[in-house]
Amino acid sequence: MSTIKRGAIVKGKVTGIQPYGAFVQLEDGMQGLIHISEISHQFVKDVRDYVHVGDEVTVKVLDVDRKARRASLSLKALEPAGEQEKRHMRMKMPLKSGFRPLKEKLREWIEQSKKENGPKP
């Protein structure tokens, strides 16, 4: 019986890579999958850019299926979210003077388009 629990930090070895994620053999013999969405906080186009077969990895256990002896794993849960936080902060920054949100310009653009593309004689 596996002692791995949800939320645990465990080590394993990458045993296979597919377009959707990486398979990991955990220390206690349980098989795990790091889904592509759990590889990094950044956009992941190719899992092979981050892990390779044979790599030793430290991962966080997101979920465990004891009957199937499989676990859902995450690499990004152990990464500092610095870039993600920076992106979030940039989105909260006020707009510089002289710039207006698109919503404020939308009505003006619609009216302008109607004048330019009005009925043809």
Give a structural overview.
The protein has a domain at 1-78: OB fold (Dihydrolipoamide Acetyltransferase, E2P) (Beta Barrel). It is elongated and about 75 Å long. Strand 1 and strand 2 form a beta hairpin. With 121 residues, the protein is of the alpha+beta class. Strands 1-2-3-5-4 form a 5-stranded mixed beta barrel. It starts with 8 loop residues before the first strand and ends in a 5-residue tail after the last helix. Helices cover 21% and strands 30% of the residues. This is General stress protein. One of its GO terms (molecular function) is mRNA binding.
Overall SS class: alpha+beta
Q: Uncertain segments of ≥5 residues (pLDDT<50)?
A: none
CATH fold type of the domain at 1-78: OB fold (Dihydrolipoamide Acetyltransferase, E2P)
Portion of residues in beta strands equals: 25-35%
Please tally the β strands and state the result. 5
Biggest sheet character: 5 strands, mixed, barrel
* Order of adjacent strands in the largest pleated sheet: 1-2-3-5-4
Q: Distance N terminus to C terminus?
A: 82 Å
Please trace the helix and strand order, writing H or E for each element. EEEEEHH
Q: Note the quaternary state here.
A: single chain
- Examine the secondary-structure arrangement and name the CATH architecture of the domain at 1-78: Beta Barrel
Total helices: the number is: 2
For the record, what is the CATH homologous superfamily label of the domain at 1-78?
Nucleic acid-binding proteins
Radius of gyration: 24 Å
CATH class of the domain at 1-78: Mainly Beta
What is the percent of helical residues? 10-25%
Mean pLDDT: 82
Shape: elongated
